[in-house]
Amino acid sequence: MAMASSDDYTAFVYVGCSQTKSVSGSPYQSNVDSLLTSLANAAALSSYDSFTSSAASATSPAYGLFQCRTDLPNSVCASCVRSAIVQLSSLCPSSTGATVQLKGCFFRYGDESFLGKPDTTLLYNKCGSVAPDEHSSDLLVMRDTALSGLASGGGNYRLGTGGSVRGLAQCVGDQSPNDCGGCVAAAVAQLKDICGVADAGDAYLGKCYVRYWSDAADTSGHHHGNRPSVGHRWSVIAFLCLLSVATSSCV
User: Where is the Gnk2-homologous domain (predicted)?
Assistant: First the structure.
């Protein structure tokens, strides 16, 4: 897959905010501030890292990680993560936990440890246009071939091809090979179920994402998106244009 250009790697995908709030100036909020600084700095050095921040209070630690797309250079990864963190204050003000997904990067923090744990919860999906009837059977064969290559592949970053259909999968760096494989398989199953004969699709799960597209598909703006419920503690805002961040987070 070609590297994202500088005008789209920070494109907003979704954000999830905890419904609980932290108190400004509290030890936990101090730990969060320190954590976000560590994440932003580490993104200049690698495509993945995780931290536990407890300097302000060992009893109120903050946990966090970031994951950039593997094909992005570190300088672009750092810019993407910093863009996500800057948007956080407007998208999830004072939330005790949040997840922000941009096109080129993802970061998450919270007051309960999720590091190293599998998570196949579907957080967001979007599908392309439905293929014409005369092409749908061929598209399904090529799509399934590409997605099967992702499900059977190894590593945290996977590519698949089936005729004119391409596929890409990436797991968060804290996942074991088995957990990564399980997450990718779950995302593939979600795409097949939700997107049907669409010519493109994306599925974002808690610890991985999978996307496919045909060479003829317009992937700049998929036909429709959906944000499933993710539990009573979290709310998800998808493709939300807030006035204060409209120029940087909405496309």
Answer: 10-114, 117-217
